[in-house]
Write a structure and sequence with these properties.
two-stranded parallel ribbon, globular
């Protein structure tokens, strides 16, 4: 969401791909689904909720255009090095 907002604010068309990794497959499945209750997003501004999610009856779903920027993969950074040419690694 932050990257999308930055790209839009500065009218940039820079290709961005995010690699999201975890050891826990359930955590990865949760991230892939991109579905959150209203309670889970209480801290987000209404502007962010409206611009980054679609709302169903009882939950918010991350827009497909945002989810398409993210590759989810089971990965152990302590055993396998991350990809080369990464601009940022965050834990």
């Amino acid at each position: 969401m932050m990257v999308q907002r930055l790209l839009e604010t500065h009218a940039l068309e820079t290709p961005v791909q995010i690699f999201a990794s975890d050891l826990d497959l359930q955590a990865l499945d949760f991230g892939r689904a991109g579905q959150y209750s209203q309670k889970a997003l209480w801290y987000l501004s209404s502007d962010l909720r409206e611009s980054c999610f679609t709302q169903t009856e009882d939950q918010f779903v991350v827009l497909k255009s945002l989810r398409n920027r993210v590759i989810f993969s089971q990965h152990d950074l302590t055993v396998n090095l991350p990809f080369f040419k990464l601009d940022l690694i965050s834990c």
